[in-house]
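We now fix the convention by which a protein and its fold are recorded. The integers have meaning only within a learned vocabulary of local backbone shapes. The record below shows the convention in full.
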Amino acid sequence: MINKLIKKIEETHAPIVVGLDPMLSYIPSHITDAAYKEFGETLEGAAEAIWQYNKAIVDATYDLIPAVKPQIAMYEQFGVPGVVAFKKTVDYCHEKGLVVIGDIKRGDIGSTSGAYATGHLGKVKVGSKELKGFDEDFATINPYMGLDAVKPFIDVCKEENKGLFILVKTSNPSSGDFQDRIIDGRPLYEWVGEKVNEWGKTHMGDSYSYVGAVVGATYPEQGKVLRKIMKNSFILVPGYGAQGGQGKDLVHFFNEDGLGAIVNSSRGIIAAYKQEKYAKYGEANFNEASRAAVCDMIADINGALEAAK
């Protein structure tokens, strides 16, 4: 799957991923009104609004981008109907040829970790059949419990040719509470990065590992260090746009081949119409605003990479 992701990035010239992290406050009233008219102000109504919103954004952007990253918590808050909307979104993105990164941030051990891995990336045996659950292409996971939490995912990834992005240095302001702690003279995130590099060697694609890392755009200096530690790992970079990251901050996340990183923007794209820059599109054309935001993001990142050569 890492080979497919790289191929899609090279075809689109867009090292970006759109975070499909919908909140009801982002969704234009004409969509929510239609959903509530059909299903009432219910969990089903909310899930229908989310699904229609996602579909419109994907339809407007799929030809520009290689991948999407739905964050499962935004769907789980609406219970079973929300999870159904998550699955519909995953399947629809696959129909459009997109790579799907399931942002699930799981981090448990033993059979529990194995069940998470099977449900999101593998197949579950039901009687005489083997059936896919959510069927994302990649998943984000939390390595806090060590190899016991990670290995079941790697095992499933090897079986299914799928991939992981492991949390190493996250974009949130308080990430340093633990991740920056000095352990034997070095910050914890460097030790985690070394483990990601070690684990990645067990599951390699043509040039990059199926085992990648999450490193926030808000920490470019740390990204520079981690890029050297994890030479063959793709880095998923959250924190662009709404959290302050810009193209010029991201150069060091990439390797000299122009690959090695994929940058995420969520509300900066899916709720672009709420920004002053894209306000001219209005609620009615929110998806066109999202497309314009994608084009601007691609230009910003590619421009920064070109200037750094």
Notes: Residues 2-307 form a domain with the TIM Barrel fold (CATH 3.20.20.70). The chain has twelve helices and twelve strands. The chain has a mean pLDDT of 94.
